[in-house]
Specification:
mainly alpha; 3 strands; 42% helix
Length: 138
Amino acid sequence: MAGMRLMAGACYVAAMSKTPERMIAGFTTGERDYIRRELDIFFSTLPSVAEGFQLKTWRGGPDAGKPKLSPIAKGLIARGLMRLDAGGHLPRLFFTEAGLTALRAMMMDRRLADPKKFAHVRRELGIDPVSADDTRRD
């Protein structure tokens, strides 16, 4: 009887020890966090989806001058949701059409992205209308 309890307890520990990566709106949890960090306000500047995500480059070693890609960025590129543009002064990641569709779905879900915090992204993607105040600033 005691052996059965140990086996049952081990079963629950194994089943609960690792949380699977859930795909919601086309992105995993880590990818959604990465996207929110990149599109959040940065030193009073609102980043643009069209400008892409700026990447750092390796300064030395065998990869000198090549872009530094996090595992999350590599995954987004591998799945065809983003593409790497290393042709400019600084390398950037840009959303592909499939990535823009997934980003639009993510931004429309209030649980995944705060509508107030990411209002600039929602306007850029055409989710929210551009207000008269925004047009006067330009």
